[in-house]
Design goal:
The protein is built from 5 helices and 13 strands. By secondary structure, it is an alpha+beta fold.
Length: about 250
């Protein structure tokens, strides 16, 4: 009799246990997904603590068939400096708060940098916001809506739509196994035309308890335009404020 009752309980509870496991692994709502992203990036304290990043590597542009070096300085709140040095020329981009500059750097070291506005400024703002994730989730900077699931490089991802008052609207693809941010797309409107700038992140390695991508592939209007091979990261280096001025 006891064996029979045990068997009946097993049969009755089996579907419930399976259902519970499915629900626990589902996590396909905005809140559950973001909670797992925060965990995957080392938790709230780690994300807040890692507030400045220096990244160095090599960059290739497929459109111009050129390559060179890449240096990026990132610091909260809203400071970004990107230096690219190709065989055919150099460029510097700086964002400091709501002001941005862009220009070429002479071999003499003298900067020819001018303030930018409009879509050129917003593209820098987008790059900062893209790099500031998942801190932007913690900071509740965005209205977030889940749009569904897709496949990226043969793996399942959940797609979030992020909007704020400033823009640009972004879609973010989250890996459903490790909960890493695999792709960010910024949606732009230039005059009557719409386009998208995207970055896909691969080859993650843990530094200071946080995953960092060592390969970034860039797209414009759906076309692959370049890739950055990161070689080193420095987490929380001392970055002088003068870096973020022209």
């Amino acid at each position: 009799m006891c064996k029979f009752l045990t068997f009946c309980l097993f049969i009755l509870l089996l579907p419930l246990n399976n259902f519970a496991a499915e629900k626990a692994g589902d996590l396909f709502d905005e809140q559950g997904l973001i909670i797992n992203v925060i965990k995957a990036y080392g938790g709230k304290e780690t994300i807040i603590k890692n507030s400045s990043i220096l990244a160095k590597g090599k960059i290739r542009t497929f459109m111009m068939n050129d390559e060179g070096t890449y240096v990026r300085y990132f610091m909260r709140d809203r400071k970004l400096r990107v230096e690219t040095s190709y065989r055919r020329g150099e460029e510097i981009r700086i964002l400091n708060g709501s002001t941005g500059w862009r220009g070429k750097v002479k071999t003499t070291g003298a900067d020819i940098v001018k303030e930018v506005t409009g879509h050129r400024l917003i593209s820098m703002v987008y790059q900062y916001k893209q790099l500031d994730l998942p801190h932007g989730f913690l900071n509740r900077d965005y209205t977030i809506r889940m749009t569904g699931k897709e496949e990226l490089d043969g793996a399942g991802v959940a797609v979030l739509e992020l909007t704020d008052k400033e823009g640009p609207p972004m879609t973010v693809s989250i890996d459903l196994k490790k909960f890493y941010i695999r792709k960010v797309v910024g949606h732009f409107k230039i005059g009557e035309k719409e386009t998208a700038l995207a970055a896909k992140f691969d080859d993650f390695r843990i530094i200071e308890n946080m995953p960092f991508p060592f390969l970034v592939t860039n797209y414009a209007g759906g076309y692959k335009i370049g890739e950055t091979l990161l070689e080193e990261y420095a987490v929380n280096p001392k970055l002088e404020d003068s870096l973020f001025s022209p």
